[in-house]
Design a protein that fits this description.
This protein has 20 helices and eleven strands. By secondary structure, the protein is α/β, with parallel strands linked by helices. The strands form two sheets. Strands 1, 2, 5, 6, 7, 8, 9, 10 and 11 form a nine-stranded parallel β-sheet that branches. Strands 3-4 form a two-stranded antiparallel sheet. α4 runs antiparallel to α13.
Amino acid sequence: MYDPKSPCAADFIDDGEVLATLAYAKQNQRNRELIDRLIDRARDGKGLSHRETAVLLECDLPDENEKMFALAQEIKQRFYGNRIVMFAPLYLSNYCVNGCVYCPYHLKNKNISRKKLTQEEIARETVALQDMGHKRLALETGEHPLLNPIEYVLESIKTIYGIKHKNGAIRRVNVNIAATTVENYRKLKDAGIGTYILFQETYNRQSYEELHPTGPKHDYAYHTEAMDRAMEGGIDDVGIGVLFGLNLYRYDLVALLMHAEHLEAAKGVGPHTISVPRIRPADDIDPGKFANSISDDVFAKIVAVIRIAVPYTGMIISTRESQATRERVLKLGVSQISGGSRTSVGGYVTPEAKDDNSAQFEVNDTRTLDEIVNWLLGLGYIPSFCTACYREGRTGDRFMQLVKSGQIANCCQPNALMTLKEYLEDYASSDTKKKGEALIARELQLIPSDKVRAIATRHLTEMQDGQRDFRF
């Protein structure tokens, strides 16, 4: 039976509830009165339930869909303004014992180049990322208990935080590793991680088990209940997501929102972020073999309805997507993007060669970080390298309370401008710096508090004299 407060995956992602929700949505896909009522109610920024959101997703009335897109843009602007947080993935190892059929890391793939970074190599990768201007990383590694134990991840985090090069520093390390124990999550918390990220890939149990035929990841319940254990281990911020294209997207979107509702009901705080990757080509992986791929139009609608359903949750899109796709969904709900990414092990020091097949997937947006920052500035966005909330203890329910009340903007706007200024002073090309300085001058005047504006203005001036790392 469906129970969002239950610790059991079969209860909070109840197959019967998902199917009943999809049937209800299909029945009401042209119920204009209901759809209008849901759109109007969602304007308060308090979100919608998974069943209500499913109706909006299923709706095929063009004028109603336009209303949804407009509302998603309105909510995005209200909660996140025009700030876009920047990050990069760092792949430590591609050794893996699982048999996931959509991932080139799977154990039976004998073609891929297997690599594991030493701590010295991790230090060099960190310096390379710092020299690009990054302040926030997401650690990635395959699941291999012997070659990639938790001790290796913890040592790597310590190495990364310990590297200070010129004006560079990685201030937030998020971690995307396999589901693990409460004890190990406590260790990750003590190591100072930011967000613990784990994608479900698909919430349909039968499909999940078929896609993960061998290895520890085959255990659906253990994987799906990982966020509960992470929060029990003291990790405040968790990030969820599915890999769209593996299973029917309607099913996975409904279940994704049920997972968010479960965390809110059982743990008092929903996910810090939701990621929306789509399956991409990789060594030994042909996306064409998966019959459930989704179009760009469907993808845009998924982003829009997620933003309406969970307005307070950050949304992430990676370089899996093209520049055109990323530009389209930025205004609909996405608040974090990666830039200058390498998905191979050691790819920042030694960019992927034609014969290097160690990458997890092909990058679609291959621009440098500076090119992406320049592009965002041209679109009127503030590329933000801010990590202040994590470092000031504004995590978990404390962060969500600030977001839901709208008060987070009092910190985010000046912090975004100050971290952008750091980037412009230390890493930007001349054209990017020119655009960035003009944007900072405009946006500074939009800070509502005279006191905050005055402090931010002073710090921006101090940065020109070489000082760094100011935050509210």
